[in-house]
Specification:
The structure holds two protein chains of two kinds. Helices cover about 0% and strands about 50% of the residues of chain A. Chain A has no helices and eleven strands. In chain A, strand 4 and strand 5 form a beta hairpin. In chain B, strand 4 and strand 5 form a beta hairpin. Classes of the chains: A mainly beta, B mainly beta. At the A-B interface, strand 5 of A face strand 4 and strand 5 of B.
Chain lengths: ~110, ~110
């Protein structure tokens, strides 16, 4: 059974940093592109970033480019999202996923507020 | 960036009726890399359709997808009570892999 379990969310002040993790199991993690998708409270889905299986190719939404860094550790079947210079508008539930394979975690809430 | 527009914003129908949801792209979606998701409150999205028309594993055949280029549709042939949720389209042909704003299907 495919499982994606996010962690690392919480309350952080504007300008602060947070590192999200996503532990994967039940599939060959290193073979899949992995994505982060976020959803602000009461709003729609927003694609954030993706990384290829080898970790050598990444893409970002313009809204996070230069502030967020996606990475992975295939030996530990774990996906990461390093988030720096956080803003109030980054407040959202962050999902780890391979959307078009139907793999989604339960999400972790990030709240940016003073 | 490809902008996706979904219409209508809200669709009010009764159980047993047919639902047709539209997703229009600001430019052509390469290779029909268009997916549809259903989301229930407090849950992660659920993949329904990928490649514009291929049902994901375990998705009932009352769900069907169609279209190409810039115009895509999700059709629910006969609405069941559990289908009254929010539906999103997403293009994954070119980065950034944008989502549409969603269509809410609610009970009339």
């Amino acid at each position: 059974e495919v499982q994606l379990v996010e962690s690392g969310g919480g309350l952080v002040q504007p300008g602060g940093s947070l590192r999200l993790s996503c532990a994967a199991s039940g599939f060959t993690f290193s073979s899949y592109w992995m994505h982060w998708v976020r959803q602000a409270p009461g709003k729609g889905l927003v694609w954030v970033s993706r990384i290829n299986g080898a970790g050598s190719t990444t893409n970002y939404a313009d809204s996070v480019k230069g502030r967020f860094t996606i990475s992975r550790d295939n030996a530990k079947n774990t996906l990461f999202l390093q988030m720096n210079s956080l803003r109030a508008e980054d407040t959202a539930v962050y999902y780890c996923s391979n959307p078009t394979s139907g793999f989604w975690g339960q999400g972790t809430l990030v709240t940016v507020s003073s | 960036e490809i902008v996706l527009t979904q219409s209508p914003g809200t669709l009010s129908l009764s159980p047993g009726e047919r639902a047709t949801l539209s997703c229009r792209a600001s430019q052509s979606v390469s290779s029909s890399y268009l997916a549809w998701y259903q989301q229930k409150p407090g849950q992660a999205p659920r993949l329904l359709i990928y490649g514009a028309s291929t049902r994901a594993t375990g998705i009932p055949d009352r769900f069907s997808g169609g279209g190409s280029g810039t115009d895509f549709t999700l059709t629910i042939s006969r609405l069941e009570p559990e289908d009254f949720e929010v539906y999103y389209c997403q293009q994954y042909g070119s980065s950034p892999f944008t989502f549409g704003p969603g269509t809410k299907v609610d009970i009339k």
